[in-house]
Amino acid sequence: MADNKNSNETKTVREIKMGDIDLDFKREITSLPGMEKLRLCFQCGSCTADCPIARFSDVYNPRRLLRMTQLGMKDRVLNSDAIWLCAACFTCVDHCPQGVDMSAVLRALRNLAVKEGVLPNVFKELTDNIAKTGYAYKIPELRIKRRAERGLPDLPKSDVTAVSKLFDVLGIQKQKENK
Amino acid sequence: MSELKYLLFLGCAIPYRIPSYEVSARKVLKKLGVEVVEMPDFNCCGLPIGSVDHEAMLVLAARNLCLAEQKGLDILTLCPGCAGTLRKVNKTLQEDKKLKEKINGILKEVGLEFTGGKIRVRHLIQALVEDIGFDKIKETVVKSLSDLKVAEHNGCHVLRPTKYIGFDDPENPVLLKKLIEATGAECLDYMYETDCCGAPIIGVNDKIPLRLAGDKLRNVKAVNAQALITVCPFCHMMFDINQPRIEKLLSEKFGIPVLHYPQLLGLAMGMDAKELAIDELRVKATDIIN
To answer: Is residue A9 part of a domain?
Structure first.
């Protein structure tokens, strides 16, 4: 993904074209979990002022992302690298005077981006690992073997059959194959 | 009070990269007379998949909660990410009947049903503070670490969001400090203490979290803390495993050992450094163990 200074969502973009606005997106989005209070944001900027990531990034600006979402700028929001930069520390969630759950807004935007075919590799890997092992990481055999030597009980085997069945019902692997 | 007994939810990050946390936590819990039952068949708490599909996060978390409901035991996690996710889903599904019905419709495929209200989810430090208690902890301290000055990093999901967690004051957290002080060590304040370590976006963008964690290490060093104390595998990876990377990126030397809280407590309980896997830390804690 892009570095600080190298993103498709830079500070200099000020112009909004009517073609950037998707009216259906704007209407439908508030029905998604986490988006209920989207319209209550009055752009005070608490989320951004208190954000530890924003302190170290020129491109990550939750206030701007929220405004673009309110306006229905679907393509620009969903293709923005910035939606993947929230570390989910929930500081903004605690501080928002309007009760907007910014981390849930970003989560919903990420989910929509996935449906549009955008998914950073690190999340692809995590999803694959869960599907194959039940665990989010591939735990090396050596680590599993060494547990006994150091007096740790065996690592419980995850029920992979159950997990893949749930993924089938949820259509998780299918979503990824569509890419 | 009856004996405390929990179902241990290990999560993925600890067996993957941070066994020192598990080793030390088990030792300390045993010393405190807490019984730990292994949780069979569990899967990832659900947190990482929330970014891909919110419903999948709910389902994975709910499956774990169902397994604990079957055992009739509260879940204990060492990872704040797992604790936060399982707590949130446990609460959300109890409050939102329609959502619970929907998730149960999916869980039915694997023969499970989430009831709700049967079990609680505890993070290690919440269990230490609320269930075990400071008195009991202090009773086990045989070797006061009164020469030691450290700083703490709570880990976001132990404290926030307030609406789901409700533990300590996220603006001015004091409970981990008190746990540290129970060992005899002094816990120092530092700038931006409650800020995130940045770990969750490693892999998406590395420079931002490395700079963020570097800023925290700089502030910890500025108050002359001899170590940083964490209670999260991801924060630990960020500050310990990544410390050499941060030092290289920022051309700065920190040399701050990062201990899991149970390692610190274990030292105060009179356990030796090797037993607590302190020798496995990337940044050596030589000054502390001598």
So the answer is: no
- Alpha carbon distances (Å) from B53 to A108, A109, B182, B251: 8, 10, 42, 39
CA distance B198 to chain A (A): 6
ipTM beyond cut 0.90 = yes
Q: Which residues of B touch A139 (CB under 8 A)?
A: 12, 15-16
Tell me, yes or no, whether A44 and A60 share the same domain: yes
Report chain A residues whose CB lies below 8 A from the CB of B204.
1, 84-85, 120, 122
Pair (B146, B97) in one structural domain? no
- pLDDT band for B74, please (50, 70, 90 cuts): very high
pLDDT for B272 = 95
**Predicted TM-score of the model (pTM):** 0.94
**Cis omega (within 30 of 0) on the bond before B161?**
yes
Partners of residue B23 in chain A, C-beta under 8 Å: 150-152
**The total number of structural domains that make up chain B:** 2
Any CB–CB contact under 8 A between A131 and chain B? no
Residue given tokens 């993947």 in the structure block: A84
Show residues of chain B in contact with A4, CB under 8 Å: 207-208
* pLDDT (tens digit per residue) in B123-168: 999 999 999 999 999 999 999 999 999 999 999 999 999 999 999 9
The answer to whether position B278 is within a domain reads yes
Residue A169 lies in a domain: yes
Same domain, B144 and B279: yes
Parallel, antiparallel or unpaired: strands B5-9 and B227-230: unpaired
Q: Which residues between 207 and 236 in chain B have a beta carbon less than 8 angstroms from any beta carbon of chain A?
A: 207-209, 211-212, 215
Pairwise CA distance, residues B127 & A121, whole Å: 36
- Length of chain A (residues): 179
pLDDT of B217 reads 98
